[in-house]
Amino acid sequence: MAETAHSTGGPVPPVFNAAFRTRLAELIAWRRDVRRFLRNPVDRQVILDLLALAAKAPSVGNAQPWRFVLVDDPTRRAAVRANFERCNTEALRAYAGERAQLYARLKLEGLSEAPVHIAAFCDEEADTGHGLGRRTMPETLRYSVVTAIHTFWLAARAAGLGVGWISILDPTALTAALDVPAGWRFIGYLCVGYPCEEHLDPELVRHGWQDRLAPDRIILER
Where are the membrane-spanning stretches (predicted)? Predict the structure, then answer.
């Protein structure tokens, strides 16, 4: 990574060349929401290093509201699994016909196989950031945690790990099962481990649930 002169003083910023940008595009394309994991253990220091990178994500007012819970206790993991099964059964009832059959076939979680479980919360009672930037949009505090999750996700993929974000959960029951402070709001539950298979296309595309939208469907000019 070459350095160039920087006329404003201070540290010289890195230069990300075309080769790096190509690799970054590949990383984003290969990120994937993983549901099938090898049971191989993951070194705890690797996870801690990835969470340290996640903590460099942007946050409103520099509030850094993310709180990560490493869920190792078998009893708590069993409670999360039971939570998912209840919610998944209820979700299936909302579909009918071929869509219900497809939903039933989808692999929607990796709770049993993934060696690492991480619950991400937003600490809404922390005084960090002093309210900057969120008086009119308080939800940006939770959005900040999402940026940290995505940063973790990309960093994990670069380290050869897969991540699955499990959203078919009852937040209230999950928060109680993990016994976290009352001011913490559940954002996402992550399964982490080495993937047992690799695919460029997302699983939901591959199985016909939802295709990628074309750019002209998501970009509006005014």
Answer: none
